[in-house]
Amino acid sequence: MAPANTLPAWAELQSHRDSVGKSFVLKEAFASDPARFERFARTFTAPGVADVLFDFSKNFLTDETLDLLVKLAEQAGVERKRDAMFRGDKINFTEKRAVYHTALRNVSGWEMKVEGKDVMGGPNGVNTVLDHMKEFSGQVRSGEWKGFTGKKLTNIINVGIGGSDLSGPVMVTEALKHYGADDLTLHFVSNIDGTHMAEALKASDPETTLFLIASKTFTTAETITNANTAKTWFLKKTDGKGDIAKHFVALSTNESEVTKFGIDAKNMFGFESWVGGRYSVWSAIGLSVAIYVGFDNFYKFLSGAHAMDKHFRETPLKDNIPVLGGLLSVWYSDFFQAQTHLVAPFDQYLHRFPAYLQQLSMESNGKSITSDGSSAKYTTGPILFGEPCTNAQHSFFQLVHQGTKLIPTDFILAAKSHNPISDNLHQKMLASNYFAQAEALMVGKTDEEVRAEGTPEDLVPHKRFLGNRPTTSILVGDVIGPAELGALIAYYEHLTFTEGAIWDINSFDQWGVELGKVLAKKILKELDEAGNGDGHDTSTGGLISAFKKYAKI
Ligand SMILES: *[C@@H]1O[C@H](CO)[C@@H](O)[C@H](O)[C@H]1NC(C)=O
Ligand SMILES: *[C@@H]1O[C@H](CO)[C@@H](O)[C@H](O)[C@H]1NC(C)=O
Ligand SMILES: *[C@@H]1O[C@H](CO)[C@@H](O)[C@H](O)[C@H]1NC(C)=O
C-alpha cells in the first residue's frame, strides 16, 4: 500500500484546503445554502434499532470536500480492506491474525470463516459460547446457580484489565444500568493497586460472591495477581470450606492454567485469537454484562452492532456513516493540524464511553509506522478525550470555545430519557445544552454583538468568540438501549478502522504497551533485592532508591 500522502487525492485535498478550507466559514455556508443540513446529515436505520441521526453539516465540508475525501478512501483501498476484514483475512499483519469481532455479533446468517473454517459452531465457536453464556447468566440471575452454602450469588466481581475491563464490561454495564438486575452488585477490579481489590472485597460476603476472572491466556500479571488475592481471601474467609468451582469462573482459553487455579473447565468461557482485547466485550468477556442485564439484552446489544456492521459493509462510501466519521477525522488531523478528537455525550449513563473510546481509538491508531515498515510522514491517531456534558461545560469547554486549538467535537444525545423526571424538565434542559453547544461553537460571538450588550470596550476582546469550530451531532431517536449502544460502539469501531486504513497502519496490534510491562517485570525483582536502582539512569535509579527508603521495602 502506498503511504496516504502519496495518493493523488491527498494532493488534491491539500490544494482544496488551501483554496477553500482556509476561508471556509460554517456560519456563512449555512446562510448561503438552506439545504446544507439535509445534504450532510445521514440517518442510520435498521430493524430493531432506533434511528440514529448523524449531523455532519457543522463540519468543514463542501460537496467538493466530500467528493475528494471519498476519492481518498477509494485510493487508500478502504473498501478492499473492509472486505478483507469481513472475509477473515489476516489483516492484523504484524501478527498474521484475522480481526473478526464482527463474527461475535453475526446474528443474521453471514458466512464467517477464518482459514476456511466456520467460526460460528464447534467447541469454542461463537454460537456455542453464546449458548453457554445464556445458560450460565440465566442460572445466576434466577438463583438456580448457588454458592457453597446454598445461597444465590448476588455480588459479582469481574477481575480483568484493559479490554476485559474498561473497554468493555465497565462501560457497557454503566451504559445499560437501567436494564440491570436490582439485586445484583457489580465490582470491576483491574488495577494492580491493592486498593482496588481491597475495596471490592471489603464490601463482599464470600457466600454470595461470584468471581469472573477475565484473561485470555490466564497469565496477565495484574489479573492473575488480583485473582490469587481473591482466592486467598475466599478460602480464608470460609475457613477453607469454600468451593472455588462454585464461586470462580474463567473468561479464558487456557484450560491448563484455569484448572490449575481450581476452576472447573466446564465453567470456562473461551474466545479465539481473532478477538482483540479492545473488541472483546462482544465475546465471553461480556459475561458480566449478560448476567447483569440478562442474555436477551446482551443479544440485542450484539444485534445493534451487527446492524452497524451491515451498514458499514454494504453502504457506498459517500453515505457510509462510519466512513464519513473516519474521513472527517483524517481531514482535521492531516489538513488542519487538529491534534485531538473530543467526544462529549449528553448522557450520564455514557459517563465511561469516552474512556472506552480512548482505548479503541488510541490503542488502534496511535502508531507511526506504515504497512511497509516506514515512518508515516503525516499525523495519525488523534488524542481522544471526553467527559459527559453538561459537566464538561463547567470544566474544559472554556478551552474548546476560546482556546487556540481546533478541537473537532462529537456530541451525543438520546431523544428520550430513561428517567424523564420532573415532567421531562431535566431532559429538555439537557437537550437545550446539546443544541446550544454545537450552535455556539459554530456561530461564536462577534465584537459588534458583544458591544451591543453594553460591554465596556476594554472587555470586548475577552468576550469575543471566534466560532467556526466543527462539530458532529449524533442524535439517537429513542432511549439508548442495548441495540443503540451496540450500534454506537460499532460506529466508532468502523470509524477507527477507516482512519487506520487511510493512514496505512496496523490498527490491530499494540506493541506500544509492551515495553513498559517488560521493564516493570525487571524492576519488580530489583525491589526485593539489595541495591539502589543501580544500572538505571540516575533519575530512575534515584527514584527507586528513594522509594525503597520511604516505603521501607
Ligand atoms: C453466522 O454465520 C454462519 C456461517 O458461518 C451461519 O451459518 C449462521 O447462521 C450465522 N448466524 C448465526 C446466528 O449463527
Ligand atoms: C497457558 O499458560 C501456559 C503457562 O503460562 C502457557 O505456556 C501457555 O502458552 C498458555 N496457553 C494458552 C492457550 O494461552
Ligand atoms: C493483533 O495481534 C496482536 C499481537 O499478537 C494481539 O495482541 C492483538 O490482540 C491482535 N488484534 C486483534 C484485533 O485481534
UniProtKB/TrEMBL annotation:
Molecular function per GO: carbohydrate derivative binding; glucose-6-phosphate isomerase activity; monosaccharide binding
Catalytic activity from the UniProt record: alpha-D-glucose 6-phosphate = beta-D-fructose 6-phosphate
InterPro entries linked to this entry: G6P_Isomerase, G6P_Isomerase_C, Phosphoglucose_isomerase_CS, SIS_dom_sf, SIS_PGI_1, SIS_PGI_2
Pfam families noted in UniProt: PGI
Recorded metabolic or biological pathway in which this protein acts: Carbohydrate degradation; glycolysis; D-glyceraldehyde 3-phosphate and glycerone phosphate from D-glucose: step 2/4
CDD domains, per the entry: SIS_PGI_1, SIS_PGI_2
Enzyme class (EC, first level): isomerase
One GO cellular component term noted in the UniProt record for this chain: cytosol
HAMAP family, per database record: G6P_isomerase
Family: Belongs to the GPI family.
Function, as annotated: In the cytoplasm, catalyzes the conversion of glucose-6-phosphate to fructose-6-phosphate, the second step in glycolysis, and the reverse reaction during gluconeogenesis.
Protein name (record): Glucose-6-phosphate isomerase
Origin species: Stachybotrys chartarum (strain CBS 109288 / IBT 7711) (Toxic black mold)
